[in-house]
Write a structure and sequence with these properties.
The complex is a heterodimer of chains A (about 140) and B (about 425). Chain A is an alpha/beta fold. Chain A contains 3 helices and 8 strands, in the order E-E-E-E-H-E-H-E-H-E-E. Classes of the chains: A alpha/beta (about 140), B alpha/beta (about 425).
Chain lengths: ~140, ~425
């Protein structure tokens, strides 16, 4: 595949790369993802059973529990957080988790917001490079 | 930094109000930039969910803020804590886990929070009023405050809730502003007989469906008639905030910002209309169960997600009285509640009915956050759409959804036996 650059907005800036795990469904991090293993435990979710640790987790929007921020922070501390997160709609709960992890531990997960159109061009399993200016390369 | 700050905000950011306020304001300002909020605004009450998950990071955050001298400057109630503060020893909660939960409780109390320990704060102490600007965590409490009470809160994340309480400030954004509270999708109920609205499985099932339809949009329900109780709103909202990101909903003719359909959409045309029939709600109800379950051995009934009210206890006691044979051995009958609701129950004859049946009443906590049900359990039953949504992932069990009557009957028989009404 020819390399392609998508320009997004860096909600939480940072450099990262990894294999994309792509979902078409909203998810609640609490009740959805194990902070011990990074596995998707929501059995009603289209990526149920996949592990997002070290991957670029691509999903359209957040939902559900306000404890999502705590789960992301705990995942960061446990070393099983995604390498980066790409969204089509801002998830303030997740953004807050990444900001507080940065404040307490100096570690955060980059979060990129893409346009709806660009968001849906990302295929599961492709290798993505995320730049701190919000650019996504594949 | 893009957000415009007033002098007091800058003072906090500079550390003039102490280290905890500095850290809290720093986080709020960073969030304001993420959200493109032009400025901050005052809130006058907070409800904290950051105490719910027993995690190293959650404990560290709370203790860091407390050690740095953090004090809440608005009345601040507390969501559940990962421990039954009265009975954890009897429940066999490991000492190490309990001590960490107690440290978390202490940190929040030291900061001046009110030890309500409930996920249904709107049925208890310090209930917000119409139009009041507040900063609440806990997804079910958020949509109750916004939708039923008409108070105004964003869907605050764990830890943002404490930052708001320590500073009294939040980004001026989202559901705090009237223009962002108009309906975004119309859900029209068609062909419903009024009796359906009195069935206790209707509200959690409709909530589950509403969350799926609405996703992150504000749903408006039209066609619901009659009186909706606080417990029914609770069941509806908790389910909708699990299957979707529903922080606010309107029910035409019933919730305070929707006296009419036009009010619900603030004079605009509904961008999308979805018709929902009794068959759709019945399908949503069926999808809350992961197994048909009929005849399966039952390990536990879990009620009180969100926390039981006095009235719900009374309903369970009435159902129990129909079954003199009592609870089947090997089945646990668990009810989660707040110490405030229990104080009412203690004044009523229902308590002895529940106690002699063998119901276990658990305080202050959540089935998902405290080690209450042994990991060997494989089938649980609940009347809660929220519990049914999260139990398979969080507890690794099969779940069967039913009304209180179904739960009691199955607990007596020891095997699942539901009598689903057709609508």
């Amino acid at each position: 595949m020819v390399a392609k650059k998508l320009m997004g907005r860096a909600i939480i800036p940072g450099d990262a790369e990894g294999i994309a795990v792509v979902s078409r469904q909203a998810i609640s991090f609490w009740g959805g993802i194990s902070p011990e293993t990074g596995e998707i435990i929501d059995q009603r979710h289209d990526c149920s059973g996949q592990v997002i640790a070290g991957k670029v987790f691509v999903y359209p929007a957040g939902k559900g529990s306000s404890t999502g921020s705590a789960v992301l922070m705990e995942s960061i501390k446990n070393g099983v957080a995604p390498a980066a997160i790409i969204l089509a709609k801002i998830d303030p709960i997740l953004a807050l988790g990444s900001i507080v992890a940065d404040e307490l531990y100096g570690k955060s997960v980059p979060i990129i917001l893409l346009s709806q159109e660009d968001f849906y061009t990302i295929q599961d399993g492709c290798h993505l490079v995320i730049h701190s200016n919000g650019m996504v390369e594949r | 930094m893009k957000v415009n700050l007033i002098q007091k905000d800058r003072g906090m950011l500079n550390g003039d109000y102490g280290e905890a306020a500095r850290l809290a304001m720093n986080i709020i300002v960073r969030m304001a930039d993420v959200l493109d909020a032009p400025e901050l605004m005052d809130i006058t009450q907070s409800h904290i969910d950051g105490c719910g998950l027993m995690s190293d990071t959650g404990l560290e955050f709370a203790e860091t803020m407390a050690k740095r001298g953090g004090k809440v400057i608005v009345p601040t109630t507390m969501n559940m804590i990962p421990l039954d503060l009265r009975n954890w020893k009897k429940l066999g909660v490991p000492e190490d886990f309990a001590n960490r939960a107690l440290r978390m409780a202490k940190a929040y109390e030291d900061m001046g929070c009110i030890p309500t320990w409930t996920c249904a704060p709107y049925q208890g102490y310090m209930v917000p009023r119409f139009g009041q600007q507040i900063a609440w965590g806990e997804s079910n409490a958020i949509n109750y405050a916004n939708s039923v009470l008409g108070a105004r809160t964003e869907r605050y994340a764990d830890f943002m809730d404490l930052c708001a309480a320590l500073t009294g400030r939040v980004p001026k954004y989202g559901l705090h502003l009237k223009e962002n509270r108009k309906g975004e999708v119309l859900i029209r109920l068609v062909n419903f007989a009024p009796d359906v609205f009195r069935d206790d499985t209707f509200f959690p099932a409709l909530g589950h469906l509403t969350g799926k339809i609405a996703e992150h949009r504000i749903p408006v329900i039209d066609g619901l008639v009659g009186y909706v109780t606080s417990d029914q709103f609770k069941a509806f909202g908790a389910a909708a905030a699990s299957s979707g990101a529903v922080g606010l909903y309107h029910i035409v003719g019933i919730t305070p910002e929707a006296p009419t359909l036009e009010d619900a959409f603030q004079g605009t045309e509904p961008p999308e209309v979805v018709e929902v029939t009794p068959l759709d709600v019945m399908a949503a109800r069926a999808s809350l169960s992961t197994t048909k379950g009929e005849g399966l051995n039952l390990d536990a009934v879990v009620l009180g997600c969100p926390h039981f009210s006095y009235d719900e206890f009374r309903k369970v006691a009435q159902a129990i009285e129909k079954y003199p044979q009592g609870l089947s051995s090997g089945v646990r009958f668990i009810i989660l509640t707040s110490q405030a609701s229990y104080a009412l129950l203690e004044r009523s004859a229902s308590l002895s009915v529940l106690a002699s049946f063998g119901a276990e009443i658990i305080f202050d906590t959540c089935i998902f956050h405290s080690p209450i049900v042994a990991s060997g359990a494989s089938v649980i039953m609940t009347n809660s759409g929220k519990c049914a949504y999260y139990a398979p992932g969080e507890m690794d069990v099969n779940v069967v959804f039913g009304n209180i009557e179904d739960c009691v009957r199955s607990a007596v028989l020891g095997v699942i036996h539901t009598e689903e009404t057709r609508w």
